Amino acid sequence: AAIEFGLDAPYRIEYHDRLPSTNDRARELAADGEEDVVVVADEQTGGRGRLDREWRSPAGGVWASLLVRPRRPPAEVPIYTLAAAVAVARAAREAGVDARIKWPNDVLVAAEDDGRDDAGRTERKLSGILTEMEGEADRVSWLVVGIGVNANVDADALPPGATSLRAEVGDVDRRVFLQRVLERFAELTGEGADPSDILDAWREYAATLGRRVRVETPTETIEGEAVDVRLPGSLVVRTDDGERVVSAGDCEHLRPS
Ligand code: BTN
Predict the structure, then answer these.
(1) How far apart are the CA of 106 and the centre of ligand 1, in A?
(2) Architecture of domain 12-205
């Protein structure tokens, strides 16, 4: 079951058969002063999702956390999360899946059957990203990008509404898959990269643009048509009261009205 690594990527890889959470291990390494490390586990016993949710992480997934120290202000961090979603979506496409991104960084696959599952969903979640950071006003100290991809796992070991690469196209070589994700991420965010290229790639894979959405922000609920993304990763929503620019929140795709 173990993943063998010999990645030709600019990160050191730390592999574990089992961990509570690769994000927690990466935060420990951050506290030890490390950088450019990827913590990978075959299985997580306490995987964490966004908004304090649990993230089910059976053996066979790609559970990985990337620790980097971008010399950028914390306000720019959302673009790193978008870059990670682009990298995962592209690797999933290379594996033969019609992967699309729901703002800001969930990777979804259109439901195949009659288009809707029992809960009326039209899309199932293949991957999620949990970004954590610490920093001053002008400079990030460390950034942990936690990437969870339901790879070689049975869909019935996952929560309702989730899918896996195994369920969509069959098992993949996780080493190759993660290598592609890391190389693409490094390319999109490395020295001299242009953040607007990340937005362009995101737009190309977007599931959210052109759709009716409901976004729960920390302070309000916004409903309307998602029309664009803009730096540092905000969603532009056309509502009855005009355009709104949303920088953080939980986004749900609504059926066309
Ligand atoms: C979400 O969609 O809610 C984000 C899920 C993020 C899961 C990954 S798996 C690797 C890393 N370690 C964790 O505990 N969480 C992230």
Answers:
(1) 11
(2) 2-Layer Sandwich (3.30)
Give the position, in ligand 1's atom list, of the atom nearest the Cα of 44. Answer: 14
Say yes or no: CB of residue 152 within 6 Å of ligand 1: no
Report which of 103, 106, 130, 105 is spatially closest to residue 215, judged by C-alpha positions.
103
Among protein residues, the one whose CA lies closest to atom 11 of ligand 1: 146
| Ligand 1 and 55: CB distance under 6 A | yes
| C-alpha span between 247 and 143 (Å, rounded) | 18
User: Would you kindly state where each structural domain of the chain is located, as residue ranges?
Assistant: 12-205, 212-253
Could you report the per-residue pLDDT of 177-229, keeping only the tens digit for each?
Answer: 999 999 999 999 988 899 999 999 999 999 999 999 999 999 999 999 999 99
Residue with the nearest Cα to atom 8 of ligand 1? 148
Task: State yes or no: ipTM above 0.95.
Answer: yes
Q: Report CA dihedral (42, 43, 47, 49) to the nearest 10 degrees.
A: 50
